[in-house]
Design brief:
434 Repressor (Amino-terminal Domain), 26% strand, 2 domains, Immunoglobulin-like, three-stranded antiparallel beta sheet
Length: 212
Amino acid sequence: MRTVGEILKQERIRKNLSLAEIEKLTKIRLRYLQLLEEDDFAKIPQGTVCRGFIRNYAQVLDLSPEGILAIFRRDFIEDEKGQIVARNFSTPLTKYKFSWQPRMTIILLSGLGIGLFLFFLLRQYLNFVGSPRILLERPTEGEIFRQKEILFAGKTDPDASLYINSEIVNLSSSGEFQKIISLTEGENEFILEAINRHGKKTRLVRRVNLQL
């Protein structure tokens, strides 16, 4: 079912009229016209004023004022103070304020705790079923060097063991590593292998060249 605001706005657009033009025809301020089209009647002072605005606006658009007001009464009522109240609410729309309750804090903290616990379980599961990562920052694939010793640097999972050409590499507590490797002239191939505590493996091959 269409609301009062929807009917007024659609008819205005159909007649190719702007709100500024409606303001001149009705002598109703532009701000109140916008509130009418948005069905935001609670911000219009007093129900009698609001109904007068609706009647005036409907007449300018050649709509039945009584028909539009009937739709208005279908959706809204006026309380003893003259404020507009939606029929589905027991308090005026302009008076509603959000109030934080202590139980909301308990619910929020409980939800956060459950979320963190599930995240922990997910990480443990991924660590169990997943293979360790190898992020090799240096050297790059196919890089050419002029010196015989180069630096291998990168990162893997902290709980993994890392090998370069079957030689163990020391890791920091965060899984970072650096190791000086000697090259022979021509192409050199290095096999990096990370093994986590669950026996899952990741293998990476890096080729570089030494040109003297």
